[in-house]
Amino acid sequence: MSRPESGSRRRRFFAGVPLIATLCGAPWVAAFADGCPDTSQDIVTDRPSVTNSSVVVPTGSLQMENGVNWTEHPGQGALDGPNTRVRLGFADCTEMLVDLPDYTGGVDGHGPVGFSDVAPAIKHQFGGLPQGTNLSATVGLALPTGAKAISGSGYNPYLQFPWTQDLGGGWTAGGMISVTWLTGQPVSETVFQPSFLIDRQISPHSDVFAEYIGDYQTRGLPAHALNFGGSYRLTQTQQIDFHAGVGLTRNSPDYFVGIGYSLRFDGLR
After folding, report:
1. Residue 22: what pLDDT?
2. Does a structural domain hold residue 233?
3. Is 3 part of a structural domain of the chain?
4. Is residue 80 part of a domain?
5. For all residues of the chain together, what is the average pLDDT?
6. Is a pLDDT exceeding 80 seen at residue 30?
7. What is the pLDDT of residues 145-184, one digit of tens each?
8. What are the residue ranges of helices labelled H in the chain?
9. Which helix (H) or strand (E) holds 56?
10. 154-to-4, 91, 100, 182, 267 alpha-carbon distances in Å
11. Could you count the other beta carbons within 10 Å of the beta carbon of residue 198?
């Protein structure tokens, strides 16, 4: 999940700190490049990496992705959850999704406290690409429904372009370009967040990944982090996942960890 970058909350792995942090988890298989996913294929999620999946939910399927995170800054730890993203496949190669409010609280009495924004979006997966290549685009808007200390006070539109390339032998490369416009501040700000990951399928039901995330703002210093994790598919429609990472710059988190559970419901049409 990447989620829209709203105020102090930019993506799941940055949750509860002055930067947001939603990813992949399930392996992106080359077969998706030949068409949109269907219900015969395993669940593919936007977590636990920051890089979202490059494929959409099958048409007529409802998917719920959930997680809880702990983020640590010097002298400040925060628990964030439940991170819930609801995804509905409503047309060929197209889904509607919404990030529901989650609660961020500093267990040591420091840092911002409150709920995040509601953030609806539409995601489309492009066809006609070379074998083994996937690309999608997401257009969304974070609505100012949460606490100002967490999400700011404005309407924050965002664009995301996740991609993947099958490398063979169970290896996949992927990444995402994310741009968010923060409007609820005295001076509007644009945030650019690139990410890149390598995913390795280690069994028919599990995979692991390593990921780099950058965070660049029109004001302020950039932040950089590394994220590591994996997922295990309990069934074709259920997944558990974990991730842990470290910040590489002074204004990044010291470290962050999270776990999650996702479930897909098929045949809704």
Report:
1. 35
2. yes
3. no
4. yes
5. 86
6. no
7. 988 878 778 899 999 999 999 999 999 999 999 999 998 7
8. 148-151
9. none
10. 12, 30, 17, 7, 37
11. 15
- Structural domains in the chain (count): 1
Tell whether 102 is covered by a domain: yes
Six-digit token string for 3: 């989620």
User: What is the per-residue burial (b if ≥16 Cβ within 10 Å, else e) of 228-248?
Assistant: bbbbbbeeebebbbbbbbebe
CATH of the domain at 92: 2.40.160.40
Query: Does 77 have pLDDT greater than 90?
Result: no
Q: Which of these, 98, 47, 82, 53, lies nearest to 241 by C-alpha position? A: 47
**DSSP structure string for 59-74:** BT-EEEEEEEEEEEET
Residue linked to tokens 């842990």: 244
Residue pLDDT, tens place only, 3-18: 444 333 333 334 333 3
pLDDT value for 193: 97
- Residue 186: give the domain boundaries: 12-265
